[in-house]
Amino acid sequence: MEQIERIGVSLDKPLLARFDDLITAQGYTNRSEAIRHLIRQRLSAEQLEDPQSEAIAAVFLVYDHHCVKVIEQVMSLQHSHVLHTICATHIHLDAHDCLEVIILRGKVAEINRMGEQMLSLKGVKLGRINLISTQMAPTPHP
To answer: How do beta strands 97-107 and 85-92 pair?
Structure first.
């Protein structure tokens, strides 16, 4: 079991009130869990700054399904990087547009390179790469 260490944090009242409103709206049960979440987010963001850090990502692509070459090219990219592609999901948004969500795993630089190749394909209307670190930053020792 993890050891828990209690700490004290001093905040001015208006800042604390805004924080309490935020965590209530987001559904946190207490301040400690919200603060732990913020710390984990910051440590993860720091890890993602290292191009060699391990990560997982969802690449979102919105494209016109009449543009057949887009999906062929996306599939080709996935097959050429089979070790990095975990899965893909195809969603019909409306009569013209589809959403492809591709889950990738690997080093930050490799994921970004492959994701950018997908986003830049002719026919892709919108796209985004959402990265999450799969390792926590090492804890410095005094």
So the answer is: antiparallel
Q: Report the distance separating Cα 138 and Cα 135, nearest Å.
A: 9
Q: Is residue 89 within 8 Å of residue 59, measured between CB atoms? A: no
- What does R_g of the chain's alpha carbons equal in angstroms? 20
Is the pTM here over 0.90, yes or no? no
| pLDDT score, position 78 | 81
Burial class (CB in 10 A: 0-12, 13-18, 19+), 30: exposed
The secondary structure of residue 31, as a DSSP letter, is H
d(CA 115, CA 102): 9
Locus of tokens 């001015």? 12
- Per-run averaged pLDDT (10 residues), the chain, 142 residues: 85 96 96 94 94 95 87 84 83 94 94 94 95 70 42
State the residue for tokens 């440590």: 43
CB burial class (10 A; 0-12, 13-18, 19+) of residue 50? Answer: middle
